[in-house]
Each structure stands twice: as C-alpha cells, then as structure tokens.
C-alpha cells in the first residue's frame, strides 16, 4: 500500500490511491492497525483498530 498505488486493480475507479495510504499512516501513528478483507466479485471491507490507551513511548 503506497501513496501512489491505484485504488483498484481493475482501473474502474479514478483516483491517486492516496486516501488509503493516508488513513493507514494516521492509524499506525496512533498505535493502531488497518487492514482489508476482499471477496472477488463482492467487494472489500476495510477495518482498523486503535488502542484504548495511547502507547507509552
């Protein structure tokens, strides 16, 4: 997942791919995790977690 990767492999949707990369950086900065689950022909579901208490440095 890089900032300039296409948002969809099929090319059906326009975009620079920045949105997901930015979201990932924000979530990871806060100690969380971002991932997706995809079912061909049905779509993708994006998930993220954030810690209840900020991590200690």
Describe the structure.
The chain has one helix at 18-29; strands spanning 33-39, 43-49. It has 57 residues and is α+β, with helices and mostly antiparallel strands. 21% of the residues lie in helices and 25% in strands. The chain has one helix and two strands.
Multimeric state: single chain
Task: Give helix and strand order, one letter per element, not per position.
Answer: HEE
- The span between the termini is 26 Å
Strand order of the largest sheet: 1-2
Number of helices: 1
Gross morphology is elongated
The percent range for helix content is: 10-25%
Q: Describe the largest sheet.
A: 2 strands, antiparallel
The total strand number stands at: 2
CA radius of gyration: 14 Å
Average per-residue pLDDT, rounded, comes to 79
Strand content: 15-25%
Secondary-structure content class: alpha+beta
Low-pLDDT parts are none
Concise summary:
By secondary structure, the chain is α+β, with helices and mostly antiparallel strands. The protein contains one helix and two strands, in the order H-E-E. It has one helix spanning 18-29; strands spanning 33-39, 43-49.
What are its keywords?
elongated; alpha+beta; 1 helix; 57 residues; two-stranded antiparallel ribbon
């Amino acid at each position: 997942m890089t900032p300039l990767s296409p948002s969809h492999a099929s090319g059906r949707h326009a975009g620079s791919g920045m949105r997901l990369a930015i979201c990932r950086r924000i979530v990871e900065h806060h100690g969380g995790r971002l991932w997706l689950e995809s079912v061909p022909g049905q779509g993708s579901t994006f998930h993220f977690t954030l810690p209840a208490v900020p991590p200690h440095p």
